[in-house]
Amino acid sequence: MDLVGESGFVYGQSEAIRSVNAIIGEIAQTDIPVLLSGESGTGKDVYGKLIHQLSRQRELPMAKLNCTMLAPGDLLNQMRQSLEQAQEGSAGTLFLDGIDELDLDCQKVMQATLQQQEVTSGGRASLRLRPKTSAASRHSPRGARRRTSGSRPALP
Fold first, then answer.
1. Is there a contact between 116 and 78 (Cβ–Cβ < 8 Å)?
2. Domains in the chain, ordered, with CATH?
3. Fewer beta carbons under 10 A from the terminal one: N or C of the chain?
4. In degrees to the nearest 10, what's the CA dihedral of 45, 74, 140, 29?
5. Residue 92 near residue 136 (C-beta atoms within 8 A)
6. Does residue 3 sit in helix, strand or coil?
7. Looking at beta carbons, which pairs linking 120-128 to residues 24 or more positions away fall under 8 Å?
8. Residue 144: what pLDDT?
9. CA 90 to CA 105: how far, in whole Å?
10. DSSP 39
11. Which pLDDT tens digit goes with each residue over 76-97?
12. CA dihedral defined by 106, 112, 115, 120, rounded to 10 degrees?
């Protein structure tokens, strides 16, 4: 069953779904990074795709990076591969799935990469990184900090 209607919004009549859809419609039009948090199966991936579909970057592909169990040395290579698979290094949205699973070293690399807006790895030419960034987490940032004492506050 297709969860996204012609309008691009997730189907639902409850006040909670209508409220989330309204917020998604507003933030999709901005370039601010977005963190979607919720338990497994709550639709973070669906809403991540929806944000991309409603954004100004919708004509460009969405690159998805699975952040679970990445080592710092693999992070840049995986990010580069995700962007290259999207379309010649030009993605409209970079979706960081499971960002709460990154260890502190990976968080440092990710933060620096997003701030520099380019990915350089393996001696290859750097890729410009200017997509809208959205991320999914099973835990709220506050909960992650209490749980691991290690979430970097500046990371989305």
1. no
2. 15-148 (3.40.50.300)
3. N
4. -50
5. no
6. coil
7. 120/76, 121/76, 121/77, 121/79, 121/80, 122/77, 122/80, 124/80, 127/80, 127/83, 127/84, 127/89, 128/89
8. 47
9. 26
10. S
11. 777 777 776 665 556 678 888 8
12. -90
